[in-house]
Design goal:
The structure holds two protein chains of two kinds.
Chain A (H helix, E strand, L loop, with lengths): L9 H21 L17 H25 L5 H18 L10 H17 L5 H12 L8 H15 L2 H24 L12 H10 L1 H15 L4 H13 L1 H10 L2 H21 L3 H17 L5 H14 L3 H9 L2
Chain B lengths: L1 H6 L2 H24 L6 H5 L14 H12 L7 H29 L5 H18 L10 H17 L6 H11 L3 H4 L1 H14 L3 H25 L8 H11 L6 H9 L11 H14 L1 H16 L4 H12 L5 H6 L3 H21 L3 H15 L6 H9 L9 H15 L6
Helix pairs in contact in B: 2-5, 2-6, 5-6, 5-7, 5-18, 6-18, 7-8, 7-10, 7-18, 8-11, 10-11, 10-16, 10-18, 14-21, 15-16, 15-19
The chains are: A mainly alpha, B mainly alpha.
Chain lengths: 330, 413
């Protein structure tokens, strides 16, 4: 671990162990054993056991990502990091276990994205990110607008803070790779959008209204992030902020509201995690201001993490069908 | 200005902020669980009434028929039953919020935080249970309300005599009140009996509440269905109108005709045997926190009387044992146990019991010193809402998987 500059302390281990227990609980609660058909470039990716394996690998990738983030964070920010990791898990743990999304190609694309982000944070083998971009675009072309943006914005961010040519080249190569992947999917005929009508428009609007405090939080955060930042950094932060819009807009317009909800939150929480892991001073101070505001106004701060889990559990990954069946089948 | 500032001092502001947070959170819990459906079991209950005799579980139906008489609209219809249920459930949730507010107002400032966490924990389960399709407008809602009113009266020391008629009302809603929720009032009365000098008053109240409830229980269980056959068809006709997808035949056969269909339910016992250990295991972090709390509470009690008081509080949930042994609705029993401990501990904090407050604060401090403490608030979301024979969707899911892969024991599928 030390080779990568990761500092994992006793508290980190304890937290990650309990998080693993939480992950197991989520698997037991949400894993439905049902595999519905999803557009896939190769039929083997839709085989039940391959999907189970891919989902397990996705979980492993999430934990690797968390270890990297926790290990890279400064000691006095660790507690904040735990909250961010838990908030990220609230979205990422249940999503691809729910029957409608279990086996969707997003899982593979998320795996490549998470690995790519880890490489960017660790600053080891970053060129592999280009390959990951190509693979994720080939497997799940629509992911280019979703998680794909994450890799893109962080390559751009690195280009802005490091001012090294290699990141500029990587950025161009990544865009090219995504375009090639997109084209390959189109030529192979596997270019179709996987849309699931899990959440109704009414529930989506309600969810957005009920989640509006998070909009306020993000405004406070980005305001502080941009305040005092240099011009170049302002541009980097603006790109990071804008990166979450395409996926959410695309899925919302196509009627896949569960995915829209997931992508908009997962994107921004992952960016928070990555910026903290990269020890970005603007992000750290912005988050500190946000934390103080939360402590000032919310008597139980953990509710910020707990609250969205309600929607993920009961509306997006919920067992409502099961209940309705039981209730009305009386 | 000074007065206004004084009113919004640290403690009051903290309570107001907590109440706003709790209201928003409870609303979200409601909205995510609500299914706009009354299960036939709960709508059929409205067809029962005391005009057919002093039968069990008929109080709710009697109130409903009374409302039907008073209002100029015909209430014997599923749509109106739904409206009634919505209003009653909304009032119940408002009452829960009021209970939380009164509790925080009465307890000492240094014990505020643990009380807030306990209230949040209890509200999550209570709101989800009575919002979800399974238990929406279930009679348990009234029983919980009655037991919480009793707790409030005893904790505030006002009109405590009302506990006696309220206990009777609880049993009239459902005779299961005796095992499920009467313990709240009885334990608090016993606690006051041991804590104050007014031994005669609390002794008499305890005796009356216990005796009247027990007598009513025996009446409803053994004698109340003698001439049910005379009214069966009328009740069925009303039940059909009040239910959306047909009435609940088993309920009416049991309550009106007195036919015990318990034997047919015996195969469902296997669900309990599979699910109970799973639930206990998964819920073990919270059980351990509660166990540690009581262990320290009893250990640190200074006098023998104090020790007895806390032992009574601990074993008070034991009244649920007959239900656990003889009946099947483990989801409801689990909720009743949770309600008992939450309401009683909150009531003791309201009564400014120093030992309980200190131990609650100590437990909170121990748990919050761990970096993963807040994850303990996430896990309960996986367990909501509670159902009945199946404890909840989560445990049902795991139990069914366990059975189909290893046990092959369930016969009903």
């Amino acid at each position: 671990m030390r080779g990568f500059g990761l500092e994992i302390e006793k508290n980190d281990k304890e937290f990650l162990t309990v998080l693993a227990f939480f992950a197991v609980l989520c698997m037991s609660r949400f894993y439905d054993h049902a595999l519905y058909s999803h557009p896939a470039p190769f039929s083997i990716l839709q085989s039940y056991y391959v999907v189970v394996l891919a989902t397990a690998v996705y979980y492993a990738a999430l934990f690797v990502f968390y270890i990297v983030c926790v290990g890279k964070t400064l000691r006095f920010n660790k507690k904040l990091m735990y909250y961010l990791v838990a908030l990220c898990s609230v979205f990422t743990f249940p999503m691809f276990l729910q029957a409608n999304y279990f086996g969707s190609m997003d899982v593979y694309a998320w795996f490549f994205t998470l690995m790519g982000i880890c490489l960017i944070v660790l600053e080891h083998g970053e060129w592999l990110v280009v390959l990951y971009g190509l693979l994720s675009a080939c497997i799940c072309p629509m992911f280019v607008f979703g998680g794909g943006c994450l890799l893109l914005v962080f390559l751009f961010y690195q280009r802005c803070i490091k001012e090294e040519k290699k990141y500029g080249c990587m950025l161009l190569a990544f865009i090219l790779a995504e375009a090639v992947g997109f084209l390959v999917s189109y030529v192979r005929g596997s270019f179709s959008m996987d849309v699931q009508m899990t959440v109704s428009l009414r529930n989506f609007v309600l969810m957005m209204v009920l989640m509006s405090p998070y909009l306020l939080m993000s405004i406070i955060y980005f305001q502080n992030l941009l305040r005092g930042a240099k011009k170049r950094m302002k541009m980097a932060y603006t790109v990071i902020f804008a990166g979450g819009i395409p996926s959410a807009a695309m899925y919302a317009l196509r009627g896949d509201f569960a995915r829209a909800f997931f992508y908009v939150f997962a994107y921004y929480v992952v960016t928070l995690l990555v910026l903290m892991a990269m020890r970005d001073e603007g992000a750290e101070s912005g988050l500190m201001v946000l934390k103080n505001k939360i402590l000032q106004w919310v008597p139980i701060p953990a509710i910020v993490v707990v609250y969205p889990f309600l929607f993920m559990t009961l509306w997006i990954s919920g067992a409502h069908e099961l209940i309705v069946e039981t209730v009305l089948g009386q | 200005m000074f007065k206004l500032k004084n009113k919004w001092n640290g403690r009051n502001l903290e309570i107001v902020k907590f109440m706003i947070m709790l209201t928003v959170f409870s609303f979200a819990v409601f909205i995510t669980n609500y299914q706009y459906v009354i299960r036939s079991y709960n709508s059929t209950m409205l067809a029962l009434s005391y005009k057919y005799g002093f039968t069990s579980r008929a109080l709710l139906g009697t109130i409903y028929h009374l409302v039907n008489r008073i209002l100029p609209i015909d209430m014997i219809d599923y749509t109106m039953a739904m409206r009634f249920a919505q209003v009653v459930t909304a009032l119940f949730f408002l009452f829960l919020l009021a209970f939380a507010y009164m509790c925080l107002k009465s307890c000492e400032e240094k014990y505020l935080k643990p009380c807030e966490y306990l209230i949040l924990f209890f509200m999550l389960f209570a709101v989800s249970m009575f919002s979800g399709g399974y238990n929406f407008f279930r009679v348990d809602l009234f029983m919980v309300a009655v037991s919480m009113i009793c707790a409030l009266l005893i904790a505030c020391g006002k009109a405590e005599w009302l506990v006696v008629p309220l206990s009777a009302v609880g049993v009239m809603f459902h005779q299961g009140y005796v095992f499920m929720f009467l313990n709240v009032a009885l334990v608090l009365l016993a606690y006051k009996f041991l804590s104050t000098d007014k031994k005669v008053k609390y002794g008499v109240l305890f005796f009356l509440a216990f005796t009247i409830s027990s007598a009513l229980f025996l009446w409803f269980e053994l004698f109340s269905r003698s001439d049910g056959a005379l009214y069966y068809d009328t009740i069925v006709d009303e039940a059909k109108q009040l239910s959306e997808n047909g009435y609940h035949m088993t309920l009416l056969m049991h309550e009106v005709l007195g036919i015990d269909l318990g034997a047919a339910e015996e195969s469902l016992r296997k669900i309990n045997i599979v699910q109970f250990p799973i639930f206990t295991l998964l819920f073990s972090p919270y059980i351990m926190i509660a166990a540690k709390f009581f262990y320290r509470l009893i250990k640190n009690a200074e006098t023998k009387v104090e020790k007895w008081k806390y032992v009574i509080v601990l074993i008070g949930a034991g009244t649920m044992l007959p239900d656990f042994i003889l009946k099947l609705d483990y989801g409801r029993w689990m909720f009743a146990v949770m309600t008992y401990y939450s309401v009683v501990i909150l009531a003791l904090c309201m009564m400014k019991d120093k030992n309980v407050g200190e131990e609650a604060a100590y437990s909170f401090q121990c748990v919050s010193s761990r970096p993963w403490m807040f994850l303990l608030l996430l896990i309960p979301i996986l367990f909501i809402p509670f159902w009945d024979v199946d404890i909840n969707g989560f445990v049902q899911h795991v139990g069914t998987w366990l059975d189909s892969h290893f046990l092959n024991w369930y016969e009903f599928q």
